[in-house]
Amino acid sequence: MTNIEIAQHFVLFADLMELHGENSFKIKSYEYAGRTLKKINESLSDLSIEELEKVDGVGKAIAAKIFHLAHTGKLDLLEKYLAITPIGVVEMMRLKGIGSKKIAQLWKELNIESIGELEYACQENRLIELKGFGFKTQENILQQIQFIKQSAHQFLWSNLEELANEILVEIQQDYPSFLISTAGDFRRKKITLEGIDFLMALEDDAIQTFILEKYKQYPVYFEFCSQDDFYLKLLQMSSDKEHFGFLSFKLQASKYTSENQIYEEAGFPFIAPELRDNQIEWKLVEENKLDKLVDLQDIKGVVHAHSTYSDGTNTLEDLATYCKHQGFEYLVISDHSKSAFYANGLSEERIILQHQAIDKLNEQLFPFKIFKSIESDILYDGELDYDTSLLKSFDMVIASVHSQLKMNEARAMLRLINAIENPYTTILGHPTGRLLLSRAGYPIDHKKIIDACAANQVCIELNANPYRLDLDYKWISYCQEKGVKISINPDAHNLRGVQDIRYGIFAARKGALLKENTLNALSKDNFEKYIKTKNSQ
């Protein structure tokens, strides 16, 4: 089991205990364990019970439960609570901002045991008079139910990647003589999708049936074809209709040995699958810019990471050393600001201490450099979290919204524009606050936000956490048109999180982001010149 899966089991366990009115001290211990475990760098499944006991927030009892869960896939006490809780009530706990106690109210007082029953109750205005609810809560629940319906049977690309690789390896080992590849939305790196498509050059009915039966419990879909048809079929499945139609019009042959050969015959350079779905690919070909798209090896610095100074799980020194060893030239440390009390946000006094620590580490790690930054909360009026005298002490500021997310467009725009116009804002962080398949972002007018960033020389973050990928890649073209740089930031809270940059790269390439328009593709010296120029204006 992955660390996130183990953590999710403990969070659900704590929620169910609260639902059933259990001891609050035990609930908090399991909640804390759930929050902590997902940030651990080492694979929990590889640790002994003795090693698990040394993890922060994990005592002997929880260590034993983690070990058992990691090796059996079950948490016995969780199974006990699931057995006495209607499955529909468990599903209701996916709703954000309601909490287990309110779910218990709905279940016990209104006999609501499913999301469908809850939706009907909201439409009948049955929640308005319920203690602790009211009209706004009822409307929020209805909106969330609609969002869940729209996201049903959807997966994040990142959550299917490991499964796809495992199936490919298994089939290639069992049937090495047959061509096989991922295809469809997965190969095009669509951010959310219904499953994994595979194409296999296999015409044996018995083997086809065996494969379909073997993997039927997974969200995977197989299509079979002949060896001669494989590459043309692969290209067709891995492109949208317009892309393939335009290309196939120029083709003459009936058999190909690679996708490259198909493009060559059509008179075009090879176009990667992630670009074959938005028509911008042909403009890149026309302008000879396909080879200028940003790629993972272009990223020179890690921008936006959290240490133990706020809610990260690694020390500043460990984080910087890791980034240096990974080949990066610099790290922009961006711990949370003081209003983010829930994330151990930095007080003015602790900022001074961190800056002193950064100065010492920069001497030790030279030529690698740590830049002094902060992820400043954008307050409700659009102001940043510190006064001018302190903001001046940072090399740069990432401004992000973390609280009071339930805003209409007018309020969200006022808040963001004010932050963008603050002369100390360098990057606008995760502009809509969305969590994919979990929380819709607050509504904004993307063009006006991008225009404001252009006018104030503010960069926009493409938050590379696979649950965010915010800014949405579909707005990258407009950013480039307006001269707004994009910073592909991992928002890392542990060492593993640094590697999330790759998911940001996938999204950035779908949006045709060029290396020249990527902030952290700048070398250390050029990055420093850029932020100094911004600060001097």
Outline the secondary-structure elements:
Blueprint: H1 3-19, H2 24-37, H3 49-53, H4 60-72, H5 76-83, H6 87-92, H7 100-110, H8 115-123, H9 135-151, E1 155-156, H10 157-174, E2 180-183, H11 184-187, E3 192-193, E4 196-201, H12 205-214, E5 220-225, H13 230-237, H14 241-248, H15 259-266, H16 280-286, E6 301-305, H17 316-325, E7 330-336, H18 348-365, E8 369-377, H19 388-391, E9 396-400, H20 409-421, E10 427-428, H21 446-456, E11 459-463, H22 476-482, E12 486-489, H23 495-498, H24 501-510, H25 524-536
Parallel strand pairs: 4-5, 6-7, 7-8, 8-9, 9-10, 10-11, 11-12
Antiparallel strand pairs: 1-3, 2-4
Helix pairs in contact: 1-2, 1-5, 1-7, 8-9, 17-18, 20-21
Keywords:
537 residues; alpha/beta; seven-stranded parallel beta sheet; three-stranded mixed beta sheet; 47% helix
General description of the model:
This protein has 537 residues and is α/β, with parallel strands linked by helices. The protein is 47% helix and 11% strand. The protein has helices at residues 3-19, 24-37, 49-53, 60-72, 76-83, 87-92, 100-110, 115-123, 135-151, 157-174, 184-187, 205-214, 230-237, 241-248, 259-266, 280-286, 316-325, 348-365, 388-391, 409-421, 446-456, 476-482, 495-498, 501-510, 524-536, and strands at residues 155-156, 180-183, 192-193, 196-201, 220-225, 301-305, 330-336, 369-377, 396-400, 427-428, 459-463, 486-489. Helix 22 links the parallel strand 11 and strand 12. The mean pLDDT is 93.
